[in-house]
Amino acid sequence: MSLALGQAVSVLRPWPPAWFGRLPGSELRWAIAFVVPYIAVFVLFVVYPVTYGLWMGSNPELYVRLTEDPRFLTTVINTLIFVGIGVNLKMFLAFLLSGFFMSDDRRIKALMVLFMLPWALPALPAFLAFHWMLIGQWGFLNSLLEALFDIDGPVWFNSYWLAMGANVVAYIWKWLPFWTLIFLAGRMAIPKELYEAAAVDGATAVRRFAYVTVPLLANLYLICTLLSSAWTLGDFTAVTFVSGGAPALSTDVLATLGIRDAFTIGDPRLGVAVMMSALPLLIPVVFLAMRKIQMTEVQL
């Protein structure tokens, strides 16, 4: 607790710190020379784009146009489905798989290397490969169904639910290894003595999981879920390169609709307004994540 209070006090100290003014002239100039480039980068690549974007999306008429566009409500629903199902299912699977990869078996360690490959691949070829596996009767999956079971596979991108499902599955496939690795690191940080003590008391593997692993990783799980939700709200690569919004742009999410309005239609202000319409959902998620992180630091 004292360490956390010390960190809090150090954050609240005024800037510049007292020692800054006591530096000799030459050292002060060098200090300023090192600080100025960072400040310039922050202003040019953070402050300016954010301020300009807020200014571009500040016209109320843009949001009137959005509410009059029948695609916008569909896109909002798609975004909630994509984020809600994709993030929660991904986190649940990652949490379970992290336990599987805790094994000391060399075969499982080797399997983990293969499991990490989707995350290691760049997003563009990864999602394009997933798209071509599902495209028409020549796609890999439909060809496999015909070869093994002599059945014709569906036209994946002509159905709303199949296309949306393909987007969600591709998104989970790409990012599942990363969050599995995060949970694996969390599990490895749990002292083995706790599991040994529980085993001595007669706790089964299920009870050790329920009463040791879950409580100790609950904060990590919640923080990861909130952070992943915030990142996924702005993710346009999965939908763009897997379904492309098919059929008939009915599977667009806010990120893809914003890009489409800004660059395809050529209306950047409307594209910014689409993205800013996600702020009522994004701001509470980010606030909760930061609040939870701060509470975790204080507990440590």
Q: Return the CATH class of the largest domain.
A: Mainly Alpha
Structural class: mainly alpha
* Distance between the first and last residues' Cα: 7 Å
* Rg calculated over all Cα atoms: 24 Å
**Helix and strand string, N-terminal first?**
HHHHHHHHHHHHHHH
- Mind telling me the CATH superfamily name of the largest domain? MetI-like
Looking at this protein, list some descriptive labels.
300 residues, mainly alpha, MetI-like fold, 2 domains, 15 helices, disordered N terminus
Task: Tell me what you see in this structure.
This protein is mostly helical. The protein has two domains: 13-56, no CATH class; 69-299, MetI-like fold (Orthogonal Bundle), CATH 1.10.3720.10. The protein is built from 15 helices and no strands. It has helices at residues 2-12, 25-56, 60-68, 70-100, 106-115, 117-120, 123-134, 140-149, 160-188, 192-200, 205-233, 237-242, 254-264, 268-276, 279-299. Helix 7 (123-134) crosses helix 9, helix 9 (160-188) packs across helix 11 (205-233) and helix 13 (254-264) packs antiparallel against helix 14. The radius of gyration is 24 Å and the shape is globular. 26% of the residues are buried. The model is unreliable at 1-13 (pLDDT under 50).
